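Dear support,

We are seeing what looks like truncated structure output for some complexes. This example has two components. We would appreciate it if you could run it in full and send us the complete C-alpha cell output so we can diff it against ours.
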Amino acid sequence: MINLKKTGDTVFFSTTPRIFSSFSVVGKKEGRGPLGSIFDYISQDSLFSQNTWEKAEMEMSKKAVQGVLDKTNLMPEDIDFLLGGDLLNQIVVANFVARHFQRPYLGLFGACATLGESLFLGSTLLDGDFGDQVIAFVSSHYQTAERQYRTPIEYGDQYPPWKQWTVTGSAAFLLQKEGGSVGITQATVGTVLDWGIIDTNDLGGAMVPAAAQTILTNLEDTGRSPGDYDLILTGDLGIRGRDLLRKLLKKEGLGELDNLNDCGARIFAPDQKAGSGGSGCATSAVVLSSYYLPRLEKGDLNRILLVVTGALLNPTTSLQGETIPGIAHALVLERMVD
Amino acid sequence: MPRTLKTEAEEFRQMAQPQNRTPLRNFLVAFAVGGLICFGGQVIQEIIMVFGPDKDTASMIVAIVLIVLGGIFTGLGWYDELGQFAGAGAAVPITGFANAVVSAAMEFRQEGLVLGTGARMYSVAGPVLTFGVVTAFLIGLIRALI
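Here is the complete output from our reference environment:
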C-alpha cells in the first residue's frame, strides 16, 4: 500500500493543522531573563501560592491551559482532546491538570521532547478529522525536577559550568483545523539514539546526536536544504549543546549553520548562573509560545524547523551506570497566508 | 528509516568532552575554604579552652558549634552557594555533613514529618553514617585483637 501522507519518517499533513493560540507561564528567574517581559504570565512566587512544589507545578500548568482557553474565549468542553506531559514520575502534573479540566486526555512522556510529541499527535488527530480543537500542554519546574532527578536544593554540591538549569514554566497550545497564521505542515518523528554519553550533568551533549539525526532525516524526507528554513530551532541543548550540534552537522556535510539556534541557549542571560542554559519540557514550549510564534505570525520568519529534544534517562538507570539515550522530534512550522 | 550519521559515536564522545574543566582552581579553592573552616574551628576551640574545658571537651563543643552553624547557613540558603564555589572545601568539613542532613530534612518536609523529613533526611548523608559505622567497627575489632 502506498502511504500518501508519509515519506521516510516524515509525516506530511494534508490539511495543515494550525497553532491558533498559546499561553505561557514562567517563574521569576525566567521572567528576569533576556526574553523576560514577553511571557504571558510571570510568577514572582515559584510556589504559586501552594504548599508543595508539585502542587505549584500543577497550578502553573493549569494556569497555562486556562490561559489559552481564556485568550480564545473557549470553554473546556469545546476541546476535543487534551495532550500533555511533564518530567515527573507518572507524569503526575499533567494527569492532575487533566483531572481539573475533565476532557478526553492522553498523558505523554518524552522527557524534554514532550512538546514535540503533543504537537505531533495533536496535529495528527486534527489532520485525521478526529476533532476540531486540541490543547497540547507541557510543564517543568526547577524545584520538582531537581528533587526528583538530583539532590535537595540547599545541598552544597558543586555543579560543572556545563550543567543546565531546569526552566520553571508551562505553555499550552491550542491546535485547530483552521484559522490562525501558523501551520504545522510536516513532522519528523525521532528515533532514540544513544551515543554513550554518561555524564548526567551533560544532558545537552547527550541529546545532540538525536537532534542531528532528526534534522538530517527531515531534510532528506522533505528534499530541503538547511537554507530552506529561516530557522532551525532546537529545544534545550543549551549553549554548549547548540555549538556541539553545529560542529556535528558541519562534519555531516551541512556547512556552517548560521540559522540554527536553541531555546535553552536563549532563555537565561550569562549572569543568571544557569550554566549552559535552560532545560526541561517548558524551555521549548515557553520560548516558542512567546517569542517564535509571534515572529512567525508577524512574518519575520516564514518557515522554521522546530526540533524538540529529550534526554531519556532516569535517576535509577544513571546510578546503575546506563548511558543517556536522546530523542528529537521535528515539526515544520510555516506562516500561512490565507 | 532515519538517516544514519557518518560520525562515529566514539568520535562524538571525544568532541563532546567538556573543554572548560578547572581542576587546579577547584583544588586551590577547596583547600583554601576547607582550611578556613577548620581554622575557624581551631579558633573556637582555643577560645573555649580559655574558659577551662580540656582539649577533648573543647573539641566536642567545636563540633557542635560547627554543625549548628552549618545547619543555620543551610537554612538561610547560603551553604549551597558556598558548595558551588568551594566544592569539596565545603563538603568535607563537618559543616558539610550538617548541610547534607539539613538540606534533605528541609527538602522532604513537604512529604510530612515522619515519612518525609524523618525517613529521608539521611538520603544524602546516609553513606557517611553507614561507612563511618563500618569503619569504626573494623578499627575497634583490630584494637580488640591486638
